[in-house]
Each structure stands twice: as structure tokens, then as C-alpha cells.
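Try it yourself: sequence plus 2-acetamido-2-deoxy-beta-D-glucopyranose, in.
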Amino acid sequence: MNHPIPNASIFSLFLLLISTPWAHPLASLQEDFSQCLSENSEISIPFSTALITPNNSTFLPFLQSSAQNLRYLVPTAPKPEFIFTPLHDSHVQAAVICSKQLGVHLRVRSGGHDYEAASYVSQIETPFVVVDLAKLRSVIVDIQDNSTWAQAGASIGEVYYRIAEKSKTHGFPAGLCTSLGVGGHITGGAYGTMMRKYGLGADNVIDAKIIDVSGRVLDRAAMGEDLFWAIRGGGGGSFGIILWWKIKLVPVPETVTVFTVPKTLETGATKILHKWQQVAATELDEDLFMRVVIQVSEDSKTANKTVTTLYQAQFLGGADRLLDVVQTSFPELGLTKKDCTETSWLKAVMYIAGYPSSTPPEVLLEGKSTFKNYFKAKSDFVKDPIPESGLEGFWKRLMEEESPLVILNPYGGMMGRISETAIPFPHRKVLFKIQYLTTWQDEKEDEGKHMDWIRKLYNYMAPYVTMFPRQAYVNYRDLDLGVNKKSNISFIEASAWGKRYFKDNFNRLIKIKTKVDPDNFFRHEQSIPPLPLPARSRTRGHHHTKQNS
Ligand SMILES: Cc1cc2nc3c(=O)[nH]c(=O)nc-3n(C[C@H](O)[C@H](O)[C@H](O)COP(=O)(O)OP(=O)(O)OC[C@H]3O[C@@H](n4cnc5c(N)ncnc54)[C@H](O)[C@@H]3O)c2cc1C
Ligand SMILES: *[C@@H]1O[C@H](CO)[C@@H](O)[C@H](O)[C@H]1NC(C)=O
Ligand SMILES: *[C@@H]1O[C@H](CO)[C@@H](O)[C@H](O)[C@H]1NC(C)=O
Ligand SMILES: *[C@@H]1O[C@H](CO)[C@@H](O)[C@H](O)[C@H]1NC(C)=O
Ligand SMILES: *[C@@H]1O[C@H](CO)[C@@H](O)[C@H](O)[C@H]1NC(C)=O
Ligand SMILES: *[C@@H]1O[C@H](CO)[C@@H](O)[C@H](O)[C@H]1NC(C)=O
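Structure, out:
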């Protein structure tokens, strides 16, 4: 049944059409696809488990398994024709070859954390299929070489666990949330608690294996420095399918210190946050990453609605030196020794990810996320401290929403020393990034109300954040910034979001895309577009293309 001869599949489609009018005519797509896969894969594929069709009861649970944003799992959200879960690199190659041959739109999913579900929902065309890399999650750590090969389907938490298993003094500077898939995460940048000391995950990639549009596996030498540049920060789903990353491990001390200190409006949140903005990126030691998590809560004494700012930190060193650092540059926080917990790097990772301290680290091997909800998010970057009056208006707006969440993430240190063009990620010389979220738990909630609220908040913040372009983080994908409406998108439309995510690096990304995938096979709502044919011939021979003039 999984290996039909072509005539039989045409015949059975014919039978389906005449005898069962309710049958989905695309049934033959699945058959043709599995036929093509078995012809194009050196290693045989166990189709009964690797090709998950909607008529199987495991289809929806599997589709939902790693998906993070419940907004895109509602019954009306577009669903793939089937999900293919390769067990071997060559299966992924076959999937690219067959999608191209059969002309079916393909999406690729690693950890499923895409904010707008680009890895498993296509809003621009149907039918589409999902290639899910969840079963490709090897992590090969080489401590002598200070390096690791991580397969795209592994979670970043598994990578951290496997490193820590081999060494107490090696780590990797990527995301805080441990269930992120390394496939999508690192290709969009990947910031975390060690970014001020070592830069982004993408800054610490030394090699990769990617499947290109022809189904070839290319390493760094074979793909060339242009494509290798593009995949380190240019965002997922535009250039090919990343199979493996080779990452450079960084030194971490045996003792790492963490703390969380809350400040409410009643305990001076506004003035303290004003000071944090002036020191977090510029004055505090690079070993210290102190983010601010902002929520609306009830004041414990008055039961009034208030804003809580949580100062949550990881310090690469012991508590005594940490206290020195904070008391020198940021005494307003009032940090004391009893706020501080000394622990290992891996336990610090788990603390920041929100696991209770008694959780065994093996939970990281499950690659499961700790929470899921309906959410909408947006991001901004800040270069000059927001004045207290600006913060006060901000608090007022936060208190109008049920479950707002805002996270301020300090830059400085190594981030500011890496050039804006070193990789596509351009946000280097800023004080901090803002992430705004609104979340809800009930499917029946009015989504529009929450969307309106966050869009208005975003408008309110305009005077305080980067402009021309108003920068945004590609890993916090935001479809409000613009969407590729057709498979044949113009790059001028795309620059609405492209310039915000990549600044002028967007131009180089377009050129590389035009070279490696001119027919735009790898595409989604916000994938890098190739130059249209007329523009290609116009700019031939010129070193710089002037897309926006
Ligand atoms: C709860 C939560 C916490 C987060 N915390 C952080 C954080 O601390 N730091 C940070 O930097 N970001 C963070 N992010 C954002 C995260 O980095 C991005 O959502 C990232 O794209 C997730 O990668 P993924 O593989 O899990 O997602 P997916 O949804 O699988 O993929 C994301 C995009 O990449 C493409 N893609 C997936 N796999 C591949 C592949 N193998 N090759 C090529 N393209 C691929 C997809 O098609 C999609 O376009 C967070 C997100 C969430 C939901
Ligand atoms: C599910 O659908 C596929 C493709 O249409 C078909 O080959 C298979 O027989 C179906 N399985 C069941 C149990 O109906
Ligand atoms: C449904 O999927 C499961 C797991 O992927 C597989 O074991 C089972 O054989 C499938 N059932 C049918 C009827 O295809
Ligand atoms: C690995 O890192 C350590 C510590 O940074 C360094 O001393 C050593 O030379 C590195 N080894 C290699 C092979 O790069
Ligand atoms: C907060 O609570 C106190 C005591 O319950 C009350 O007097 C005060 O007016 C409240 N403040 C606001 C801003 O609601
Ligand atoms: C793409 O768009 C161009 C002009 O915008 C048009 O000439 C061309 O036919 C389109 N191609 C496809 C495949 O739609």
C-alpha cells in the first residue's frame, strides 16, 4: 500500500473519485510522495510510522506536540496533508527532491517554537506538507576540540545537557527556553544569558550541514561563505534545511550564581528600572546578564493592581564577586547575599528556564516545553534610556490587559564588539531589547481584543525605540510587519519586514537567496525572497543592487 505502482495509484484515485465523493482527492499525493521517497532514499523508510496522515489518530497529537502557539492549533487553522518524520539525513534529502518533483509546498519544523507557526501552518498556499525533524536529535560533544555537532531536531536543552554531562566547565551561549529546536533557533540568531560575554549562538557556529534546493548535503566548505553567512541569523526556512550545526563551546566556571529580585510600583520599580537602563548594558560586568521580566499582579499589602518588575540574573562566577559588581554599579537594586544561589551552569540554565530547583536535569532530554498558551508578541530595540514619564505611561497600558508579559534583555559587552555585518543579525549597538507579549488560555477568548491591545502598546512605544528602521528580532516573528502574500513576492514589499529584522543585511540575504534558490522553493510568510527575473538581469554585473531607491 505504501509502495503503489504509478498505474495503481491513478486507478485508485479514479475509484475514489467515482465511488466516495467525500474522499479527499489528495490521497494520491501521499501515495505519490511515499513512492517517490522510497525511490530517492538510500536507506529504507518505515512508512507506517514516518508518514503521519490525518486519518491516523496520532496526527493531531503529533502536530500539536512541539507547537508553541495555540492560536495556530485551532480547528480552523490550515493543516498539512501529512507530516513526514525522517529517521535519517538521506530521508530529508528525499523529501526535498520529492516535494519539488510533485510540486507540493513544504514546511520544515525542528522545535516548533515559531511565534507565527511558519514551521507547520501555511497561510499562503495549500496543499502543504510538513517535514518534522523531531527524530533527528543526536548531539555529539567533543570536549578536547571545544566543539559539538548538534542535529537540527535536538532541543537546545538537550545540547546543554550533553555538554554538561561531559564537562563542568564548558557551555554554549544560546536560548533561555530549553525546548527550542536548534534547527530554527540558531538560524535566527539565538540569544541567551551568556550573550554579553560570548555573543549569540549564531556567532558561535563553526560549520553546518544543509540540504540545498537540489537535495544535496553541503558543509561549510561546499556551501561557500555567502550561504554560510546567510544561515547564521538570516532566519529559518529560506535557504535550505539545516541538518547539523557544529558549534564552538565556551568556558563556564564551575560556580555560577543566579537570583531573582522583585520590585513593584510600591517598592520603587520606576526609578530602579530607569537606573537599570543606564547600567545593564554599559556598566555591569560581562559575566552578568540581568534581564527584567515585567508582569501585572496584585500588591501583597494593598491588594491593588500593580506592576511587578522581576530582576532575574545569571552571573558567571560566585556570589561574593556578584555582590561587588551589583553594589558598585546598581546599589538601587538592594541585592543581598541571601537573594543569591550558587550552582552549576546546567542548574543555572534550568533555573532561568523556570524549572523548580528539585527537577532532575534529565527532564531536558524530553525536549518538552514547560508551558503553552495562545499568544501574540512583538519586539523592539532601545538605544537611549526611556524616561520615567515614558515608563509611567507604559505601566498604565500594561494594567489595561489581563495577562501582559514584557521582557527586557540587556545587550552590551561582546554584542557591541561584533560588527553589524558579521552575520545577518544586525542588532548590536543597543542598550536592550524589549519583547512584548499578551497571552491567554481560553480558546473562546476574543483574540481581536488582545491583538488591538498589543498593537496600541507598540504604537505608544514608538518614540522610545529604534526607528528607520524600527528594528525587530526575526526569531520573534511578527506577521504584523508584513507577509509574503504570493509565492512570487516582490522584494520591495518584503523589505517592510526585511529591513526591520536585518537592516542593510537584507540586501545581501536577497542576493544569496537569488543565487541558491532562484525559484523560491524554500518559502513561507516571511522568507527571504529572490530577486524577480527582470531585476536579476538589470543588476547583472553590478556589485550593489539598489532595491529601494
Ligand atoms: C517559549 C519561547 C521562548 C523563546 N526563548 C528564546 C530565547 O531565549 N532566545 C532566542 O533567541 N529565541 C527565543 N525564542 C524564539 C526562538 O528562537 C524561535 O522561535 C526559533 O525560530 C525556534 O526554533 P524552533 O526550531 O523551535 O522552531 P520551528 O517552529 O521549528 O522553526 C522556526 C522557523 O525556522 C524554520 N526551520 C525549522 N527548522 C529548520 C531547519 N532545520 N532548517 C531550516 N529552517 C528551519 C521553520 O520553517 C520556521 O520558519 C523563544 C520562543 C519561544 C516560543
Ligand atoms: C489513511 O490515508 C492513507 C492515504 O490516503 C491511506 O493510504 C491509508 O490506507 C489510510 N489509512 C486508514 C487506516 O484509513
Ligand atoms: C498510525 O500511526 C502510528 C504511529 O505513527 C502507527 O504506528 C500506526 O501504524 C498508524 N496506523 C495506521 C492505521 O496507519
Ligand atoms: C579548548 O578551550 C580551552 C579553554 O578555553 C583552551 O585552553 C584549549 O586550548 C582549547 N582547545 C582547543 C583544541 O581549541
Ligand atoms: C491602593 O490601596 C489602598 C489601600 O487599600 C488605597 O487607599 C489606595 O487608594 C489604592 N491605590 C490605588 C491607586 O488604587
Ligand atoms: C511573478 O511576477 C512577475 C511580475 O511581478 C510576473 O511577470 C510573473 O509572471 C510572475 N510569475 C509567476 C510564476 O507568477
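One thing you can check immediately is this: The pocket of 2-acetamido-2-deoxy-beta-D-glucopyranose (ligand 3) is lined by residues 48-49, 52, 56, 58 (CB under 6 Å).
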